[in-house]
Amino acid sequence: MRAFAGTPTTLAFVAVDETEILGWCWGHHLARPDSGPMLYVHQLEVAESHRRKGIGRDLLRAFMEAGVKAGATKMSLTTGAENVAARSLCESLGGGLAAQGPTVNYWFLLDPHQR
């Protein structure tokens, strides 16, 4: 956790009340050679009992504002095609579907001992 939090490109926000965590949002501010700096949202989650109360919107706005202050001009996130709530939130904040259409994500486990 300390390595994650100590990474200069990390952005993380947590919504809390007096007794519990209501939600969180985390990702990175990325430098890109093909365009200006951008944000990548890795995860936005709101506890089921606290959804539809603006918490996700507030977390995403805080993430976006921090990115703008850091010089980012774009933001990217991926959600499931069937996740209507997430898609509605993204669209309400001005997000648009990627011009290249549907995407497929691949994960690679990297072995530091392989060359």
Task: Report what the structure shows.
The chain is an alpha+beta fold. The protein contains three helices and four strands. A four-stranded mixed β-sheet has the order 1-2-3-4. The radius of gyration is 16 Å and the shape is globular.
Global outline = globular
Strand percentage: 25-35%
Spatial sequence of strands, sheet with the most strands: 1-2-3-4
| Spans where pLDDT lies below 50 across 5 or more residues | none
Content-based structural category: alpha+beta
Total helices: the number is 3
Main sheet: strands, sense, barrel:
4 strands, mixed
Overview features:
alpha+beta, 115 residues, globular
Please render the helix and strand layout as text:
Blueprint lengths: L1 H5 L3 E7 L4 E10 L7 E9 L8 H15 L4 E4 L6 H9 L23
Parallel strand pairs: 3-4
Antiparallel strand pairs: 1-2, 2-3
In short:
With 115 residues, this protein is of the alpha+beta class.
